[in-house]
Design brief:
elongated
Length: 101
């Protein structure tokens, strides 16, 4: 009986965690449809800020002032947020045939 309760509890935890990622994915999908989110995050932060940062890495003044590590940290921040969104998409976007199971 104890194994049955343990297995049931584990399955419930997995279901709760799966629902968390599905909810996160749904929220992210709504954000992607928002024009302000697209402009500020997808274009302004992911695209423009990343391109600006990369172009600054080779700048002579950046090198002279020792600002490269600061720029790299900014680029890493962009990458981390993108990675978080990718994780939400991978864990929350459950194909319909799997949802039915």
């Amino acid at each position: 009986m104890n194994n049955l309760n343990t297995q049931q509890t584990e399955e419930e935890l997995i279901e709760v965690e799966n629902q968390y990622w599905v909810d996160m994915w749904n929220s992210l999908e709504r954000l992607h449809k928002n024009p302000d989110f697209k402009r500020v995050i997808l274009e302004g932060y992911f695209k423009d800020r990343a391109v600006d940062g990369v172009s600054m890495l080779a700048n002579r003044l950046t090198l002279q002032e020792g600002k490269r590590s600061e720029i790299m940290e900014s680029l890493i921040a962009v990458s981390r947020l993108q990675d978080h969104f990718i994780m939400i998409e991978n864990l929350g976007n459950i194909p319909e045939e799997q949802e039915e199971e």
